[in-house]
Amino acid sequence: MGRQKQRSQLNTIGTIDMTPLIDLTFLLLIVFMITVPLLEFGVDVSPPEFNADPLPDEKSKVINLDKNGIIKFDKQKVSLAELKENIKMVLARDSKTTILVRADGDRKYEEVMEIMKIVKEAGIKTVSLVTQAEQK
Predict the structure, then answer these.
(1) pLDDT grade for 47, boundaries at 50, 70 and 90
(2) What phi and psi values does residue 71 have, to the nearest 5 degrees?
(3) In what order do the strands lie in the sheet containing 98-103?
(4) Per the confidence metrics, is the pTM higher than 0.85?
(5) Beta carbons within 10 angstroms of residue 127's beta carbon
(6) What was the pLDDT predicted at 94?
(7) 135 belongs to a structural domain
(8) What's the number of domains the chain is made of?
């Protein structure tokens, strides 16, 4: 009779209940899915000020984006569609033109990127962002 008890105990040890391990795996997966995106936005980042070379005067045009979201190209107010056409006209006159993008610090990054995208679509190869000089 002692042998039958021993065999039944070995049979129960041979099977592992996987349900708690699967529950733990899904719990960890959910925790990481929630915390990883929060870690990215939890960092306080302020872009630095730069000391760069002086702006080139020749063969460059400036696009300004002011606090109110108004876009000005060569000191004239333009829409995004007009901006693209104006850049194409400038490019037709001189293919080595450099575009300088000046944006107010309060404007959204996506607005600046939209302007840069339009400049690239118009065919300009050199685009520069104008930054504020470092304060000493």
Answers:
(1) very low
(2) -100, 130
(3) 76-78, 71-73, 60-65, 98-103, 127-129
(4) no
(5) 15
(6) 82
(7) no
(8) 2
Residue 84 included in any domain: yes
Q: Kindly state whether residue 136 falls inside one of the protein's structural domains.
A: no
Residues 30, 70: contact at Cβ < 8 Å? no
β-pair type (98-103, 71-73): unpaired
Residue with the bigger pLDDT between 55 and 117: it is 117
Half-sphere exposure of 125 (CA within 13 A, CB side): 5
SS (H, E, C) the chain: CHHHHHHHHHHHHCCCCCHHHHHHHHHHHHHHHHHHHHHHHCCCCCCCCCCCCCCCCCCEEEEEECCCCCEEECCEEECHHHHHHHHHHHHHHCCCCEEEEEECCCCCHHHHHHHHHHHHHHCCCCEEECCCCCCC
DSSP β-bridge partners for residue 16: none
